[in-house]
Write a structure and sequence with these properties.
By secondary structure, the chain is mainly alpha-helical. Helix content is 68%, strand content 9%.
Amino acid sequence: MELGEVQERFAKIIWENAPISSGELVKRCQDEFEWKKSTTYTVLRKLCDKGLFENDNGTVKVLMTMEEYQARKSEEVVDEFFDGSLPAFVAAFTNGKKITAEEVEELQRLIDEMRG
């Protein structure tokens, strides 16, 4: 699932304020992006079609949280660029970088949780 920069900013408004009335969303988008009502509804419809949100009788609700979206997006990057290999992704991400002892501990904690 790919969102452009503006769509992500728009989605963030919803995630931070949901549930939000469509009228309030239009107002916030006017302030943030200088959009007309029709533009807000067009972008909302596209994100609803992607399964992120639902416009239920004028109330916009979250179907996929920001954390779920980020996890899905991360999985797609690992699949596309690293043939689904998480170790290959981590190796590329940390290539040439020093990671702190705290980061090593956090990674180990995550690994331990996945094992258990």
